[in-house]
Amino acid sequence: MPNPALQSTIQRLWERGETAMRQKNWREAAKAFEEILALEPGHLPAMLKASSALLQLDQYNKARARLMSALAVANHHPGLVMELGRKLRQFHEPALLLDLLERSRFIANAPPPALTEMALIVSSIGDQETALALVRRATQLAPDAFQGRYLHGTVLMFLGRMEEAETELEACIRLQPDFPQAHWVLSRLRKWGEHDHHVERLRQQMAKVRPGSEPEAYFSFALHNELHDLKRFDESWQALERGCQVKTKLDPYHERSTRELFGRVKQICTPEFVRAAPREDAYTPIFIVGMHRSGTTLLERILGGHSLVSDGGETYAFTAQLKIAADHKTEHALDLQTADRLVDADFDAIGRGFIEASRWRAKGKPFLTEKLPPNLINAGFIAKALPNARILHMVRDPADTCFSNLRTYFSNAALYSFDQVSLANYFGHYRDLMQHWRTVMPERVLDIAYDDLVRDTEATARRIFDFCGLPFEADALRVERSSGAVSTASSASVRQGILTDRGAAWAPYQAHLAPLLDRLVELGVMERPA
Asked: Which three-class secondary structure state does DSSP give residue 75?
């Protein structure tokens, strides 16, 4: 029989917790929901609320434990599965998320908005086939929902199905002409020609947006992309400059944080610190690191074509283990507080945790790629935690790399890339950090020149395979193959095969790029261009 007094107490505590959440009084909220759980240990909503409040208090492991306890007692109601999915993504638990979706028959039971949101979550963890199934179901049920058509097009692009992707993106734009993300993704889908472009449509939409807003940034980058294809470089630069100015104001970059973090990592990661005790693992991870836009996607595409390698894509799987070890939530690959807490961490546990958590991505193969460029800052921690891991570093011409960063719209990453001087300074910090890794663990990192990879592909691939312990397979060099997903900014270009004519794309903009090029010269990373 229900206990009215107990239920009344729980209701009072719930209202207290909800009020505290609205007021962002996380400590009071956590206390209220934990008191509910002391009275009723199986109270599922209180578990989820407690997890959220504890995470806001930076009690990462307690928050994660509360989520795991909720998962153990959860039913399969679509709304609950949706909430669990959001939180499992937040805690980097993709295997548990995919298992939950399968067990709950979410795809058959959820309404279109939930299907679309879950497809976005699943796409973000790299399972594009499952994301496609979810969003296809959503668009079947609600063909006039523009968000579903947009995501459908984006996932199709990741899977290399470009014509279908274009159809879906145009459908989205017909339904919602002012949806900027659809125009931006469409602008990246392929090369646009003189009689086949959307410049006027983009200009019309840009004229309607609020100045300084995120839509203005998206439209500006989309316009830049298409004008660049048309070789209308002066107009293209104006659009790019406008987009960068907007993004810089919306999401300021703080170089001091980068300088302090990189310096602390170099201080911690001495030759003695990064040395790892031997250990046998179920498979060999291959970490691909470097600057964004340096050729990391091309390298993974080659490795992923090998019969012994599973291409794992870009994930924060290693960062997830660092969060657990540090009991601290970080928004990026690493932060200063996490680095400080890792000094005395159990790196054997970090490594074993990564191997187990990423086993589903390995798919039974003996090698797994992990292509997250910012892992360059974690290279020493990776070497210490995973004694068998290979670390491949892509090196590309500084001007080519930086300009490609400048003209890529990173929605919530690489904030340094929207200002020319900040971008050059970041490249300098990156170069110094990579030199540190060469000094403290020269045998653990292989530098791969992008120019060598595209111009002498077989010889370079042989060197890479040998470093990884893989036999050479010529079929791996067919990066234009239709199989596999590519969920990065290179998703369209890498399907065109190995391109040898992508250097000096910055040359038509040289006069506008003086702040970037001058700073790179000052830093000694390149010679002054003619």
From this structure: coil
